[in-house]
Fold Dihydrofolate reductase family protein.
Amino acid sequence: MGKVVMYASVSVDGFVADENDQPGPLFDWLTSGDVPLDDSGVVKVSQVSHDYTRAYWDQIGVTIAGRHVFDLTDGWDGKPPAGIDHVVVVTHRPAPEGWDPEAPFHFVDGVEAAVAKAQELAGDRIVEVAAGNVGGQALAAGLVDEVRMDVVPAVLGTGKRYFGAVDAQHLLEDPEVLQGNRVLHLRYQVRR
């Protein structure tokens, strides 16, 4: 079974979006280099960021996101982002009316059920959990194996917290650190 990784780009003060759900400068690092990260021609990063991020992206089988993110993105028009095979949406509501039942999206009630479904779908590939409230719930439930952060040199001041509403202590191992253009890539194993 693949590992469960909590991931997002984050400000140095710990936010994944501002109070209006806007990332602001958090994704600027994705256009700060000259090495294409995908086929769009828009996303270009440093060689260090490319090697780190591309290797990670290529291992992801399933992404878990909350219904709020799903709604903000209009469900990615029914196509999982970044070439991911499936998206598991944590929600207490059914799929939107008129949603294509063939789209590789799975609507699940509760983070534990979401991780179980994602691991079933991912096999030995990585299950990525979006940081924020859903990621924080997965961490609090002991379901996260690794925390990855792309820390950008920005202070948002307020907004949506990387760990959501986690209100208990969780210990991580020492970080693996790589520096790219306008980003510091951090990777922590969750201490068991």
Observations:
- The first strand starts at residue 4 and ends at 11.
